[in-house]
C-alpha cells in the first residue's frame, strides 16, 4: 500500500488526503491512536460478532446505490462488505494500523466500490462541503475526544437531504450498568473509548442545530446495548 505526504501534515492511503488531529482533554487523539494500535491485531476477533448487528444496520441505512458514502471510523473495515456494491465508499480512521487491516479486507474481498481509505481526524475532515450522499459513523462518538465537533463535521460534508447514520452505545442513567460504566470511565484513556455517553450529548446537539432533524432512533442487539440514530441534514 502506498503512503504519501501532503502539505499540512496530511497523510493518505490509496490517494486520499487526511489532516492529523489535535489532542483534546481526558480522552485525546494520542490515547486513541495508542489504544487502537494495540487493539488492531485482535479487534476483529474480540468485536466482530458483538458489533455485527449494529454494523449491518448502519450499512443498510447508509447505503446509496449510485451515490457516495463516507464511513467515519471505518477501523478494520468490518462493515465495508455489508454495503450494496453499487455504493461508492470512502473510509477514514485515526488509526493507521486499523486501516492497514481494512485495506487487506478490501483487497481480499475485491471491494472495488471502496474508492479510498485515509488517515483522518473526525473533527477535521479533508472533504468539501456537501460532498457525500450519506455518512455512516458506527461506534465512533464514544471514541472521539469532541463528539459535538465531530458531528458538526459530519453535517458539513453531507449534502442537504442526505443522512448521517450513527450507531453508538448510550450510557445507562442508573443501576448496575451505570456503576460499571462509571468505573470503566476512569480508564477511558487506556481503553480508547468513553464508556459513559448519555443520549443528552446527541439530543442536545440535535436540538440546538437548525440544520438537522432526527429521523429515527431505535435500540439494537445485543440486549439493546446500542442505539441507531438517523439524522437528516436539512
What value does the Rg take, in angstroms?
Answer: 17 Å
* Count of runs of 4 or more consecutive helical residues: 7
Order of helices and strands: EEHHEEHEEHEHHHEE
User: How many domains would you count in the coordinates?
Assistant: 1
Strand count, sense and closure of the main sheet? 7 strands, mixed
Helix content, binned percent: 25-40%
State the CATH superfamily name. Vaccinia Virus protein VP39
Number of strands: 9
Q: Report the structural category.
A: alpha/beta
CATH architecture designation: 3-Layer(aba) Sandwich
Average pLDDT level: 82
Strand content: 25-35%
Class in CATH? Alpha Beta
Topology:
Blueprint: E1 3-6, E2 10-13, H1 29-39, H2 43-62, E3 68-72, E4 88-93, H3 96-108, E5 114-119, E6 132-138, H4 147-157, E7 158-169, H5 176-185, H6 188-191, H7 199-208, E8 212-220, E9 226-233
Parallel strand pairs: 3-4, 3-6, 4-5, 6-7
Antiparallel strand pairs: 1-2, 7-9, 8-9
Please tell me about this protein's structure:
The model is unreliable at 1-25 and 176-193 (pLDDT under 50). The chain has a single domain, classed as 3-Layer(aba) Sandwich (Rossmann fold). The chain is of the alpha/beta class and 234 residues long. Strand 1 (3-6) and strand 2 form a beta hairpin. It is built from 7 helices and 9 strands. The protein is globular and about 40 Å long. 34% of the residues lie in helices and 26% in strands.
